Recover the amino acids of this structure.
């Protein structure tokens, strides 16, 4: 088992990574909590595959268990779904002595985490991420949120889990497309801080990748942990985690969160900005080509949907989150090294188009 400890100013929690760890979930929860009641928040798809199994494991340790199911997909990261979740938490008489357990991908983790952060001014929660994106990225760092029609994650908070339990065996049932989407975040981490990981990703075949997935998850989370420890509330260096995300979010939103998976949109965002910064002489020559090869290897897109490109770029400048005359963007100086650059709003097309 690999264990990471996230050390924040006012909270310390462990991240456990191990194939099959789910079988020990009840016992591990007993070690970290006195709670008697656990409410699982999950989505229909994950529930249909794992719900019964996880309930059984928790029941066998004597927990009083309840389950809340939401519809799969980004559309559930909404105030409407959040209200439905609150109603069920009321029905189940959840108190601050209980635990909320998010079992699912980033949508369940972000929405369930936000419900935990706000219900009764905060109920302890644990994350059991089941998608690759959630295992390598969203389950740590404490960013919890729901979307508004105006944009992603506009209602949110920082609320850290009591623990995170990562079982790579969950990935066996993930769609190939969702797995690829998660690989975009893995590529992101390697581009930001670990050129060796980037090389490794390029050299592994499919079986080797799966054999090494525990180690790869650990590496990504270790990078994120160090960044989050330095800047938990996202006032400074944590911004590098947004590499590829300014354009990625604009693409996701433009297509109403239906055409591109999160990682696919981020893949396009990473490539476009790197291609342009390389042309401007800010990035080492050849970097965008390497990045493109890695995205292609994992069946990820890298080109802007051309007929809509101008409108998507326009949306970045109009985004209410990007107030003022300038915005910060994340660029690579080379694979494994990133930096933040402040650009004027009229330079947006130069970097993104
Ligand atoms: N909080 C953060 O720091 C952070 C970081 C990155 C991404 N995110 C958010 O995460 C979300 C994307 O996460 P995601 O890609 O996991 O989306 P998701 O939760 O919608 O999961 C993708 C799909 O995979 C299915 N699924 C999940 N685990 C499965 C499994 N083991 N077997 C079979 N199917 C499974 C889900 O039912 C869903 O249909 C976005 O909303 C993004 O904004 C948050
Ligand atoms: Zn992301």
């Amino acid at each position: 088992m690999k264990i990471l400890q996230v050390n924040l100013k006012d909270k310390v929690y462990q991240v456990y990574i191990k194939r099959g760890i789910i079988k020990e979930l009840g016992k591990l929860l007993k070690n970290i909590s006195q709670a008697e009641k656990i409410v699982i928040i999950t989505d229909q798809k994950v529930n249909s595959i794992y719900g019964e199994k996880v309930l059984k494991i928790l029941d066998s340790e004597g927990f009083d268990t309840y389950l809340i199911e939401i519809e799969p997909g980004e559309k559930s990261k909404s105030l409407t779904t959040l209200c439905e979740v609150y109603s069920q938490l009321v029905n189940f008489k959840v108190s601050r002595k209980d635990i909320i357990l998010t079992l699912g991908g980033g949508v369940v983790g972000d929405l369930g985490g936000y419900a935990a952060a706000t219900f009764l001014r905060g109920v302890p929660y644990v994350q059991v991420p089941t998608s690759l994106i959630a295992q390598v990225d969203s389950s740590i760092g404490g960013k919890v949120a729901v979307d508004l029609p105006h944009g992603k994650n506009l209602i949110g908070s920082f609320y850290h889990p009591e623990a995170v339990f990562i079982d790579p065996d969950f990935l066996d049932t993930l769609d190939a497309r969702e797995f690829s989407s998660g690989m975009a975040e893995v590529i992101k981490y390697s581009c930001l801080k670990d050129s060796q990981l980037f090389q490794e990703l390029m050299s592994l075949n499919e079986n080797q990748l799966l054999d090494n997935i525990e180690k790869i998850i650990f590496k990504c989370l270790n990078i994120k942990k160090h960044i989050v420890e330095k800047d938990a509330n996202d006032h400074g260096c944590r911004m590098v985690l947004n590499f590829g995300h300014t354009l990625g979010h604009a693409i996701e939103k433009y297509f109403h969160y239906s055409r591109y998976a999160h990682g696919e949109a981020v893949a396009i965002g990473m490539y476009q900005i790197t291609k342009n910064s390389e042309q401007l002489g800010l990035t080492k020559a050849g970097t965008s080509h390497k990045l493109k090869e890695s995205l292609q290897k994992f069946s990820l897109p890298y080109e802007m949907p051309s007929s809509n490109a101008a409108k998507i770029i326009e949306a970045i400048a109009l985004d209410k989150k990007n107030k003022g005359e300038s915005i910060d963007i994340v660029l690579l100086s080379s694979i494994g090294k990133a930096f933040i650059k402040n650009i004027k709003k009229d330079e947006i097309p130069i970097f993104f188009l």
User: Anything to note?
Assistant: The pocket of zinc ion (ligand 2) is lined by residues 137, 185, 245, 262, 266 (CB under 6 Å). The chain has a mean pLDDT of 95. The CA atoms of residues 274 and 288 lie 6 Å apart. The radius of gyration is 20 Å.
